[in-house]
Amino acid sequence: MGVRAGVVVCITSFLLGSLFTHWIADSLTLWKSPVTDEHLWTAALYYSILTKGPVQILYVLFGIIILGGTTIFWSFNDLEAGNLMFDGGSIFLYGVAAIMYAYSVIPNLMDKFTTIPPYHMKDAFPRLLRTPTLDLASNHLVCSVALTGVLILQAGRWWAELSDGDDDEDYLSEKVEDSNAVEETKSMTPLVTTA
Asked: Which DSSP symbol is given to 189?
């Protein structure tokens, strides 16, 4: 169990780290008010650079996503109560992040940002790119929150199993103490003989 949970935590942390690299663009469109044309141009240029990267990076990313999903399903297959609750929630959140990224982020990037019009930072931002730029930032945020939920559920699972283990140890030590007390009582009780 420990290896599988470790793999899930490491992969989820890696995916969160890759989403956090988009903070350069996402912070300008989500958290800075008002959103200016300069912020939107900076974000669009960043996304455009992403689309020009080698396609092998996407293959590696999808391989890592598949490995993480497979590991969570493998752990879920133990059919223990803790696994059903914590891994079931993790599967849901991990699936939401994977589906959001595969069906919203990647197509949006490839459709809208492979070529952006020539511009100067002071030019007006095109209306056709405004919504996709804001949507990308929002989708990255949704994926980040879902993956953070996976980490929280895995930490909760670890904590629950740890406290279950403590209860088992307490129960076993009480049983040993009870059996020792019974043996001491037997050895201290004098044998009564009837004549």
From this structure: S
Tell me how far apart the alpha carbons of residues 181 and 162 are, in angstroms, rounded to a whole number: 29
SS3 77: coil
Q: How far apart are CA 17 and CA 100, in angstroms?
A: 17
In angstroms, the CA 77 to CA 74 distance is: 5
Report d(CA 92, CA 83) in Å as an integer: 13
CB 43 within 8 A of CB 29: yes
pLDDT tens-digit map of 7-62: 989 999 999 999 999 998 999 898 888 998 899 999 999 999 999 989 999 899 99
Residue 53, phi then psi, degrees to nearest 5: -70, 165
Cβ 83 vs Cβ 125: under 8 Å: no
pTM of the model: 0.76
Number of other CB atoms surrounding residue 97 within 10 Å: 27
- Give residue for tokens 């009564």: 192
Q: Cβ–Cβ contacts within 10 Å for residue 89, how many?
A: 17
* CB 21 within 8 Å of CB 32: no
Is residue 149 within 8 Å of 72, Cβ to Cβ?
A: no
The token duo for 190 is 């004098």
Q: How is the chain split among helix, strand and coil, in percent rounded to 5?
A: 80, 0, 20
Each residue of 124-150: pLDDT tens digit?
Answer: 898 899 999 999 999 999 999 999 999
